[in-house]
Amino acid sequence: MNITGHTFEKLVDPFGLLSGDRYEFFLEVNVDEEDELFTEKGLGIKVLLIIDEKGARISHYHLYERGTEKVLDFALEDDEEELVFQYCKDHIEM
Q1: 16 lies in a domain?
Q2: Range list of β-strands (E), 31-82
Q3: Beta-carbon count within 10 A of 77 CB
Q4: What does pTM read for this prediction?
């Protein structure tokens, strides 16, 4: 799995109920054709990253097919999830 690009935005809590900062990432990912995650249109991962007094962590993610936005019913392996976490964390100025 190779992350080739991303977009993200800081989410605003209009009522101030949530502690910390929340960021929504949309990652562009390439995987080998032999990988079960491979799709012809490409793979994306939507990630919700939280940074608060406990530190940074992924709150939620899901995989989707780029172009159709169809959610795929797969989970990342532990090492892939760590790669995604590090990538997101590295692209936020903390």
Answers
A1: no
A2: 43-52, 55-65, 70-72
A3: 10
A4: 0.90
